[in-house]
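Suppose you are handed only two things: the residues of a chain and a line of SMILES describing adenosine-5'-triphosphate. What would the bound structure be? This form records exactly that question and the answer produced for it, so the two can be stored side by side and reused later without any lookup.

QUESTION INPUTS
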Amino acid sequence: MSAKGKLITLEGIDGSGKSTIARRLSSHPGFSDFVFTREPTGSWIGEAVDHAIHSDTDHLAELLLFAADHAEHISKLIRPSLESGRNIVSDRYSASRYAYQGMTLSGRFDDPLGWVRDMHRGWTIEPDLTILFDVDPETAVARCGSRGDKTKFEKIGFLTGVRENYLRLAEESSESFIIINAGKSMDDNEAEVIDIISSFL
Ligand SMILES: Nc1ncnc2c1ncn2[C@@H]1O[C@H](COP(=O)(O)OP(=O)(O)OP(=O)(O)O)[C@@H](O)[C@H]1O
Ligand SMILES: Cc1cn([C@H]2C[C@H](O)[C@@H](COP(=O)(O)O)O2)c(=O)[nH]c1=O
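ANSWER OUTPUT
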């Protein structure tokens, strides 16, 4: 049986620049044998998620849609790719749920981040490495300003809480998280991410 691949996830608030770097890596010759993927996925469940995040869907229902999309992602792409020895870069993964739904569900549970993380236990596949694109929400929202696909999450107050949740996750799982200062230029962010992944592998 071939060696197991590694699962590397890119996380951060909206506008932190993850998708830009994922796109750049996917056309970089050093990453030609990697699988590039994202959450929400392009499956029909991902389309339902997209509907939820552009409407006033109940927050628990929204979490369950995101989690269903994650389960489908794992069974159709993540597990088979890792088992066949492929390395994966995923633009958003489970930590997005812990950080974002850890905010939307505040008031509904005592420790929403912990509750959402617990409901993934026993079936998710943990990333081998998470690169957290850390940037202040003012910069991130300004970057998102001009694009057309805005979600209800792209607000400074909300993203401030999401960022705090991400930093808590990074502190609690410091062995598998690396935080980068994503306030730099795209070229600098790309170079740093390539260095991190190359050293990790
Ligand atoms: N380092 C950067 N400096 C300035 N602008 C940037 C930088 N990185 C990305 N951008 C711009 O910011 C916007 C958001 O970038 P991108 O889509 O990569 O962010 P994201 O973190 O993936 O956001 P989301 O998760 O909401 O999709 C884009 O218009 C992109 O061109
Ligand atoms: C996976 C996931 C995503 N979100 C949020 C984060 C973004 O605001 C949108 C969509 O993501 P994109 O990268 O901008 O396409 O959904 C979330 O709240 N929970 C999640 O699990």
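WHAT STANDS OUT: The chain has a mean pLDDT of 95. The pocket of LXEULUCI (ligand 2) is lined by residues 14, 39-40, 53, 66, 92, 96-97, 100-101, 151, 153 (CB under 6 Å).
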